[in-house]
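thread: overnight batch results

M.L. [08:02]
morning all. the overnight job finished for the chain we discussed friday. pasting input first so we're all looking at the same thing
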Amino acid sequence: MSALHLRLSGGIGNQLFQYSAGRSLADKLNCDLKVDLSWFYSKRNLESNISPKRSYCLNHFNNTRFILSSDYPNVIYEKERNYIRHKLQKMFGYPKHIYIEKTFPFYDSSINEVSKGMYLIGEFHSERYFKSNEKKIREDLKFTTPLNDANLELKSQILDVKNSVSIHIRRGDYLKPPFNKKLVTCTMEYYQNAANYISDKVSSSLNFFIFSNDPEWVKKNLNLDYKFTIVDINKEDYGHFDLVLQSLCSHNIIANSTMSWWAAWLNSNPNKIVVTPNKWYNSKRKKNSDIYQDNWIRL
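M.L. [08:03]
and the structure it wrote out:
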């Protein structure tokens, strides 16, 4: 049975989008999904001075259905590896067996033309790529890595309160070029307004749990008119623990980040309130991106 091939890249949120799109398409085609991890060993990832080194994360979800493979030809020439061939491919196109998402951050309907044996490259930041396969994807993405003692204690605190709310504050690489030109950094006003919105909708008192890749900045700068706990037990390499803890909260206030997007999506509370920033990208052209869920509140 010929397989569908997928290049995995980026942080945990990006990897979950890519897997969900690739797996759903492979299910539709009734074939195996083979995953290429070569990006994680690339110069772009290992030697970047812009964003932290990213690690392969699907090993924390043992229900995922794919085959790891390293037998891919060098089908894509990255700019930093071979500039001339990279430019030639950009000018004259890629081999026919390679599918590259063309409409990011919107759903690319041409993915329906992909057939077995093809190689997928893209971000796939839309639930539309896997909505029809949601039940299987939720089963695939059950977190299976045991929490360590510190995270187990946080989990108990979150589950012990009636209305827990996660807040994700993304900084770090979002403050540096080129990310700061593409993505906004959410303001303290956004987080206060989001907290007020949930407070107005929920009758009992709220407990906020603050997650950030810059907890020291948050400790100095966060002004929130509610009881809150800053979660500072996980370094960047352990962001998968932050994701699962956020998903256990009753409600979620997310950043314009795929990591907290997935935390909210994986939250199984049927009555959850999810608040998302109204502006995700700096570009006006991308203002109505497919990243948004219809029932999420945009502020």
